[in-house]
Design goal:
This protein has 2 domains: 250 residues, Rossmann fold (3-Layer(aba) Sandwich); 213 residues, no CATH class. Helix 2 packs across helix 4, helix 13 crosses helix 14 and helix 13 packs across helix 15. Helix content is 42%, strand content 11%. A 5-stranded parallel sheet has the order 4-7-8-1-9.
Length: 487
């Protein structure tokens, strides 16, 4: 969300002082554009990337999404962020207030529901204040940019919530229904001179969509058809899922037509970008009293699980596979490794393939199965199949096929190897004594002499053999056995 004030507001307290300071009124879109252009030019002069300096925390969008956001701000457009869940749509919207002025002056008018422009008030009370006092007597207050952003989730939102309603109490008190004093303002009028964001636009009631259409088209508010109009100055942002946004009847065509720019988001195009995002968003401290060392191949397997899920025939691709799926899985993998390190006294703890057996707790509920498909798999079964495919893909990248036949042949003689997430790392060399080729193959993955790293490499090799259908495995109570069926 927008940051809290880091400075105190200016000392200016009257309209006369404000005018003497050189301040000039401008629309919120002009303010956003001017500040963004200035920061973009400064970042370019410093040689900084737009993602790193202007959009902190946004990874993988430098050449796709961020240029479109920049163009929309420079063009002065309202925006729709269109993409699957977990693609950073809300984060992008919440970053835009950083391009507003840190402090904005407004008429200090008690009881006024909007932050009035000192030079162009839109309410009767604001206009009367300017007309009845001299500039030296018109009070000014200051509005921080962190308060100039409001966000609403569409489901359950009513017209009165975002637009407004006639206030029955004011009518009882004798206020005319045709007077603006009879109105209770919704979120959008209260964000006059600010930014309003609506998440999940297709789930918004059609009546509210009509009200938004009027705001985007005429920049004013009409409540229950009464002749009370306000010339609003507001930047409107939306987010939506393509599957519902493009479905006929979910969003009225007139509203779609008035949205200036549609920004298409996407999942990471490359595995390395996905890993960077997961590391960043997981926010884990891998040091401390019980440190964790995550081997590159385990990070790659964890990210590949998300990538496989996004193409899996078992998963309803219309619903998407959020980045939160991968982040939660990564945290669970690290958490189980750390638990092992605490219990067994291993420092650092190193995640293994057997730690992925606990992903059911973090993955279930984050995937929607394709119920129209021919498979009869449960969610946990689908997750297991996805994990197996991800392991196989990464394994084939790391391990040369030469030598795998010898390992599989050893298993075919009746060898059975048992490993597990709570097996001490020091026990792995003994466990693999009957399959020395597999122990040596682990060096091909990572030549480390660290016992915990070697244990992780061994499990990766065994799981890779299983994922590529060269051995079978059975799992029970955290222990995993690898063997050849019927041997």
């Amino acid at each position: 969300m927008p940051t809290e004030p880091a400075t105190v507001p200016p000392a200016i307290r009257t309209l006369d002082d404000l005018r003497r300071s050189g301040w000039r009124s401008r629309s919120v879109k002009a303010e956003l554009r001017d500040n963004f252009v200035r920061e973009l030019a400064a970042a370019t002069a410093r040689g900084d990337s737009a993602a790193g300096s202007l959009f902190p925390g946004i990874v993988g969008y430098d050449d796709t999404v961020l240029p479109e956001v920049a163009n929309a701000m420079i063009a002065g457009h309202d925006m729709l962020f269109l993409g699957e869940k977990g693609q950073g749509k809300s984060r992008l919207m919440r970053l835009l207030p950083r391009f507003l002025d840190e402090w904005l002056p407004y008429l200090d008018l008690p009881g006024c529901p909007v932050h009035e422009d000192p030079e162009a008030p839109i309410t009767r009370a604001g206009r009367e204040l300017l007309a009845s006092r001299s500039p030296t007597d018109v009070p000014i207050a200051w509005w921080h940019r962190s308060d100039r952003y409001a966000e609403r989730l569409a489901p359950g939102t009513k017209f009165a919530d975002v637009i407004g309603e006639i206030d029955p109490a004011k009518l009882i008190a004798g206020t005319s229904m045709a007077a603006e004093d009879a109105l209770h303002f919704g979120l959008i009028p209260r964000q006059h001179r600010g930014i309003f964001a609506m998440n999940e636009l297709p789930d918004l009631d059609e009546l509210v969509q009509v009200g938004l259409f009027n705001i985007l088209e005429e920049r004013d508010v009409q409540i229950r058809g009464y002749p009370v109009r306000f010339e609003l100055d507001v930047l409107v942002l939306f987010s939506a899922n393509p599957g519902t946004y493009n479905r006929s009847g979910k969003v009225i065509p007139q509203l779609k037509d008035r949205i200036g720019s549609t920004i298409q988001t996407h999942y990471p195009n490359e595995r390395e970008l996905g890993i960077s995002i997961t590391r960043q968003e997981a926010g884990l401290d891998l040091g401390g009293e019980y440190p964790v060392l995550v081997p590159p191949f385990m990070e790659e397997v964890c990210e590949e699980i998300s990538r496989v899920a996004r193409a899996s025939r078992y998963v309803d691709q219309a619903s998407g596979v959020s980045a939160r799926f991968g982040i939660a899985n990564y945290r669970t993998m690290v958490a189980n490794a750390r638990r092992r390190g605490i219990v067994l006294g291993e420092r650092p703890a190193v995640p293994r393939i057997s730690d992925l057996s606990h992903l059911g707790s973090s993955a279930v509920g984050k995937l929607e199965l394709d119920l129209m498909g021919s498979h009869q798999m449960s969610e946990r079964q689908a997750i297991e199949a996805i994990v197996a495919e991800a392991i196989g893909r990464v394994f084939n990248e790391y391990v040369q096929s030469h030598g795998l036949e010898a390992i599989a042949g050893t298993f075919a003689t009746g060898v059975r190897v048992e490993v597990g997430d709570m097996l001490p790392s020091a026990a792995y060399e003994r466990a693999l004594s009957s399959v020395p080729d597999a122990w040596q193959k682990a060096f091909e993955v990572n030549a480390s002499a660290n016992e915990a790293v070697r244990a992780s490499c061994v499990e990766f090799v065994l799981a890779g053999l299983w994922a590529t259908d060269q051995v079978s495995r059975t799992e029970r109570h955290g222990r995993v056995s690898y063997e050849v069926p019927g041997s």
